[in-house]
Amino acid sequence: VDNDNQTLTLEDHTLSISEGNAVTLPKYDDSALKTNVEELKTKDTELTNEINTLKAKTDNFVSGVAVNKE
Q1: What is the pairing mode between strands 14-17 and 22-24?
Q2: How many Cα atoms within 13 Å fall on the side-chain side of residue 26?
Q3: Rounded-to-integer distance, Cα 8 and Cα 21, Å
Q4: How many Å is the maximal CA-CA distance in the chain?
Q5: Calpha distance 1→66 (Å, rounded)
Q6: 15, 27 contact by CB (below 8 A)
Q7: pLDDT in tens, 1-34
Q8: What pTM was estimated for this model as a whole?
Q9: Nearest to 9 by CA among 36, 1, 59, 17
């Protein structure tokens, strides 16, 4: 039979147990993740622009071709 009636509480970054100890938890820093996401978005935009430029060049190349049957 478990007669240990203790309560865990989390307030801000402190985890405590009733009639016991407490530990301070580190803050989660997602700034590096946010920076990486922004860099990927920028790279995606750059690559999309490059692909569209290549598509336009291909379209111009193909539309500039004439076929003559002799």
Answers
A1: antiparallel
A2: 3
A3: 10
A4: 100
A5: 91
A6: no
A7: 677 788 999 999 999 999 889 999 998 889 999 9
A8: 0.45
A9: 17
